[in-house]
Write a structure and sequence with these properties.
alpha/beta; D-Maltodextrin-Binding Protein, domain 2; four-stranded antiparallel sheet; 11 strands
């Protein structure tokens, strides 16, 4: 037997004793998940705190798979991490997901797992002269996490298109200051540089609790009703290569969503513990009982974001239905 033949035989023998069926690939030994700031990420915080993914991995016969969590400040870093392979499951606003979905339709085929929540985003200001976005001037600065690609950015663009005409959709772009939500809130309240702020619960309510801060608009007004705020996404390759891990994550996601809706006080306690939020459990529980705030897997009005982004040219790819954007596990939901 030649040296090459001997090496091939030894490799075949090793594979024969590996215990893996022919053609099967091992699933990841470490699942890497990331979340951001705010109560919209509460299901993920519940999954982390209660080790729900680990629970469902054990049920799937994979007790040795570990779960690693990280916290990022915006959707763009999420996408960078997902593309680099340093992250398996990303989370954030609908537009950052759509940008990556559009970029990868012919390659990694990124899709959403499900929605995280539907929540209003408020533009608030400390400038008494600003009653609507028409009153904003070059002297104003708007704090936005992920300025340029975040869901708050797209909401401002949609509002500007309605107010000033579609050609002027980015009229407020020069006023944006890129700050993570907690830092943006602190800067607004400090009275320095930032005069307006668009964020999400709980930060916008914390801002409105301070004297001199007023609401200018709500994203629900811009969207014509409730709309998905956050989604969770990954690549088709990850889902296909790791079917049991993906299913364990999805089952944990559903369990966490149900937990929040059935145990709002306990969910608020976990959120305060996980986030270090200083507003207190009672304040978070009150937000969770707000009818405008829904922790739900159901996608709502996601196509409105896509259609606007198509119209103004920031997203080239089109979709026939919301189901084109989501993996099949979500298709039985009453989405839009």
């Amino acid at each position: 037997m030649t040296r090459r033949g001997l090496v091939a035989a030894l490799l075949a023998l090793a594979l024969g004793f590996s215990g893996a069926p022919p053609g099967a690939a091992a699933e990841v030994s470490e699942l890497k998940v990331a979340l951001q700031f705010g109560i919209g990420y509460l299901p993920l915080a519940i999954m982390k705190s209660n080790k729900l993914i680990e629970k469902h991995l054990r049920a799937a016969g994979m007790p040795e798979t570990s779960v690693t969590w990280s916290r990022l400040g915006a959707g763009a870093p999420m996408n960078d991490a997902l593309l680099s392979g340093s992250l398996h499951i990303a989370s954030g606003g609908v537009p950052p997901f759509l940008f990556l979905w559009g970029r990868t339709v012919d390659t990694l085929k990124v899709k959403a797992v499900a929605a995280l929540c539907s929540m209003p985003m408020f533009l608030v200001t400390r400038n008494p002269a600003v009653k609507s976005i028409r009153d904003l001037t070059d002297k104003d600065r708007i704090s936005v996490a992920g300025a340029g690609s975040s869901i708050q950015t797209i909401i401002l663009q949609m509002a500007a298109a309605k107010e000033f005409g579609e050609a002027n959709y980015n009229r407020l772009g020069t006023l944006l200051v890129n700050l993570p939500h907690p830092e943006g809130l602190a800067t607004l309240l400090s009275g320095k540089e930032v005069t307006a702020y668009i964020s999400s619960p709980p930060f916008q309510y914390q801002a409105l609790a301070k004297p001199g801060i007023r609401k200018v608009l709500s994203s629900y007004d811009v969207m014509g009703g409730p709309a998905t705020f956050l989604v969770v996404w990954t690549t088709s390759k990850f889902r296909e290569d790791n079917p049991r891990t993906y299913r364990a994550f999805f089952n944990a996601f559903k369990e966490a969503t149900d937990f929040v809706n059935n145990n709002k006080r306990a969910a608020a306690e976990i959120y305060v513990k996980e986030s270090g939020d200083k507003s207190g459990v009672a304040a978070i529980e009150k937000m969770l009982n707000d009818p405008e705030i829904k922790i739900t897997l159901v996608p709502e009005n996601v196509m409105k974001y896509l259609e606007f982004m198509n119209k103004v040219g920031t997203l080239k790819q089109k979709a026939g239905s919301w189901k084109d954007l989501f993996f099949p596990e979500a298709h039985n939901l009453p989405g839009s």
